[in-house]
Amino acid sequence: MIKLVENNLFYSWLVWHFKDAPLGILNGWKNFLKFSLDFFSIFPLLKTLFAPWKRISESYEGLGDLTQSLEAFILNSFSRFLGFLVRSFLILIGVFFTSIIFIVGAFIFLIWFFVPILILFGLIVSFALII
């Protein structure tokens, strides 16, 4: 009896459509999300959010010369602020595209289960139009 069910084309399609294909969709969706997070480097950018831009910084040469120390402080502050702005912008862009990938993936995953119903509905409507 089990062999009869396993060789059934309709049973094979049900297993593929409701088990195998959704697992493939989830795997592809996961890969797209990983790619997006890696492409925009969101987590490394968060770790270095307040680091100087392009590691541009001035060292403090002791406390003897106040103008040099003030210049170094202003340059370092500006470099950190610029790094914060650029990294924040890139993080926002990355989060935006990652959320779009998440929403589109969820939509595709949910629509997949309704495709047989939509096909059946389309066939019924088309036969009704013909008759």
Description:
The chain has 131 residues and is mostly helical. It has one domain (17-130). Helix content is 82%, strand content 0%. Helix 2 (9-39) packs antiparallel against helix 4. It starts with a helix and ends with a helix. It contains 4 helices and no strands.
Write a compact overview of the structure shown:
This protein has 131 residues and is mainly α. The chain has helices spanning 2-6, 9-39, 42-47, 66-130. It has one domain (17-130).
- Biggest sheet features: none
- Number-wise, the strands total 0
The total tally of domains equals 1
Tally of alpha and pi helices: 4
Morphology call: rod-shaped
List keywords for this structure.
131 residues, mainly alpha, 0% strand
